[in-house]
Amino acid sequence: MARDSLAELHTEPFAAEREWTVEEIPVLTASVSVPRPVPASDRVSRRIHRYYQLQCRSYLRYCERWLLPQAEAAYREEVLRLKEAYGGRLEIFLGLELDADSAEPGEPYDYIIGSVHGIWRNGCYLSVDASPESFAQGVREHFGGDYYAFAAACFQREAAFLSEGGCQIAGHFDLVTKFNEGGRYFDEGDPRYVRAALEALEAAMAQDVIFEINTGAISRGWRTAPYPAPFLLRAIRERGGRVCITSDCHSADAIACAFPQAAELAERCGFREAWVLTAG
Fold first, then answer.
1. Bridge-partner residues for 22, per DSSP?
2. What is the rounded distance in angstroms from the CA atom of residue 153 to the CA atom of residue 118?
3. Nearest residue to 142 via CA among 162, 128, 159
4. Tell me: the pLDDT tens digits for 103-128?
5. Which end of the chain has less neighbouring CB within 10 Å, N or C?
6. What is the tens place of the pLDDT at every residue in 130-154?
7. pTM listed for this prediction
């Protein structure tokens, strides 16, 4: 029976990818593509599928544990060199964007941004922001196409991660909407989505983090407005929270992308100030 199953086995590529950032600057990208049986309708096919999922996960963990520290060390060295070279003329701070899957930094930083870029489900890493195709594929295959359940899982992970403490800034809080311009995948006003987002917000605010108003998806052409969404910003303001404006830029020419738009959004949601890091 197993021999017959293997003889009729058909496959398609299965890809897993991750990007690690330091201070929101990409320092390491890893991707792997393996064959997976389609459809995985019998025991042999399901075992093969599971095996390759585990191989992908092991590869990404290897990159996380062994390659990323080398990239981080080079980043630290360069920022500290520039900090000394431009001392007295320009304030430069050593920051780190810490992902929920990242190991705790072994060296001190001036500030740490806590972010979630994906979740684990059935042994697979499901990226929130890699591409619209991988985003939709992950929800379809692991959540039965239920985007609200997927969003709730993302917010739950974000709440748990930020509740651990150690981060001064909450990064792109509703990143799950990156590819959802115009309600492409789900309704951001749906009570299921709003409830999950606000519950996570409450947990994050207990740590007194600053929420960034992030314009990164604008510079990359995915959105026309910053995140978080207005209803989240109003909730932050009503609860006495704080915000800062960031570009999440991956290139120098986008370092101040849409800052006036972000400031206008903050003002419309009731804010009269934004926090800025200074040496004082």
1. 25
2. 10
3. 128
4. 788 889 999 999 999 999 887 889 89
5. C
6. 889 989 989 999 999 999 999 999 9
7. 0.77
